[in-house]
Amino acid sequence: MSGHASHAGHAAVEAAQLSEVAPGVYSYVQPDGTWFINNMGFIAGSSGVVSIDSTSTERRNRAYMDAIASVTSSPVRVLVNTHHHADHTHGNCFFSDATVISHAKCRDVMVAAGIPDYSAVFPGVEWGDLQFRAPDVTFEGSMVLHLDDRCIELSDLGFVAHTDGDIVAWLPDCRVLFCGDLVFHGGTPFALFGSVEGTIGAMDVLESYGADVIVPGHGPHFGGADIARVLDEQRSYLRFVQETAAEGLDAGRPPLEQAQAADLGPHARYTDPERLAGNLHVAYREAATNGYEFPGVPQAIMDMVAYNGGALPRCLA
Q1: What does the alpha-carbon distance between residue 257 and residue 255 come to, in Å, rounded to a whole number?
Q2: Does residue 4 lie within any of the structural domains?
Q3: How far apart are CA 63 and CA 218, in angstroms?
Q4: What three-state secondary structure class fits 60?
Q5: What gap in Å lies between CA 250 and CA 248, rounded to an integer?
Q6: Residues 178, 38: contact at Cβ < 8 Å?
Q7: Crossing angle (nearest 10°) for helices 275-287 and 297-307
């Protein structure tokens, strides 16, 4: 499909790709993986289903629930939130019979934020009837879910990466790894709510699993030789951000000015390039020795809009 439905300016929910990446293990990839168009996945067992993340709008969540029902009649008993961002957690409310699990710090941020009003930056999105639902169970470190005879290992990183509270879900029997937004496959990595350095470190953690298939938070799932390639591409971009920040700090240029002067080079092919301006704020904060002060997320978002020449980020959700 073209990626656009009759909803003008919205990506088609019908374009979502449901794939069985291992026996009873499914990825649900939503093109084109840009703002608020994330991926989910689920593990289907005879006694129930474990879902990895929900999604951003009522329409998209209902389409995802229909996709689950298309392959199993078992109920969703557990929903795992890989991190706090709304495109992965807004749909918690639609899984009323499921226990929602997250990292403790993920829940803390969710409770503090509720359901934010994104209309100023992402106008025109049909969010639907969303009700805030916080996770029911939290952990730090690791925990194991048992679904029939299958183990699903949930682990944090032990450090801040995409957010403070990222977790991954690992299925050792089939070597499938769900990694949330630690990876944007084909998209620009985004560290505004976390750490550039930490996200680079997360690539080493992901690689250490020796997975056969990785399901990222955005973009197509990938496996085999593509794993090393995709993780190296993510590292390369994040190191470019660090190098660009170092140049900007040396020149005394603020993050927005440095972003506008930077040549994205091979990274220009990624979606959502305006994230460079936000990422540079984080890289400046991590590298600065000259008294740079982070102005806060709202200013960083304004800089991303300015980087776009005043255009709001492209959101087709």
Answers
A1: 6
A2: no
A3: 17
A4: helix
A5: 5
A6: no
A7: 130
Last residue of a domain, one of 237, 265, 294: 237
Residue with tokens 């009522």: 58
- Residues 288 and 81: their CA atoms lie apart, in Å, by 33
**The Cα angle at residue 151 between residues 21 and 104, in degrees rounded to 5:** 100
**Same structural domain for residues 26 and 133?**
yes
Task: Give a yes or no: residue 316 inside a domain.
Answer: no
Hey, how many other C-beta atoms are within 10 angstroms of the C-beta on 193?
19
| 175 and 248 within one domain | no
- SS3 at position 179: strand
What pLDDT digit, counting tens, does each position of 101-159 carry? 999 999 999 999 999 999 999 999 999 999 999 999 999 999 999 999 999 999 999 99
How many domains are contained in the chain? 2
Torsion angles phi and psi, residue 21, rounded to 5: -85, -15
Is 314 a member of any domain?
Answer: no
Query: 192, 211, 237 — which closes off a domain?
Result: 237
Which CATH number belongs to the domain containing residue 104 in this structure?
Answer: 3.60.15.10
Which range of residues forms the domain containing residue 273?
239-307
pLDDT tens by residue, 27-51:
999 999 999 999 999 999 999 999 9
Give the CA count within 13 Å in the CB-facing half-sphere of 281: 22
CB count within 10 Å of CB 277 equals: 26
For the chain, what percentages of helix, strand and coil (3-state, to nearest 5) are there?
35, 25, 45
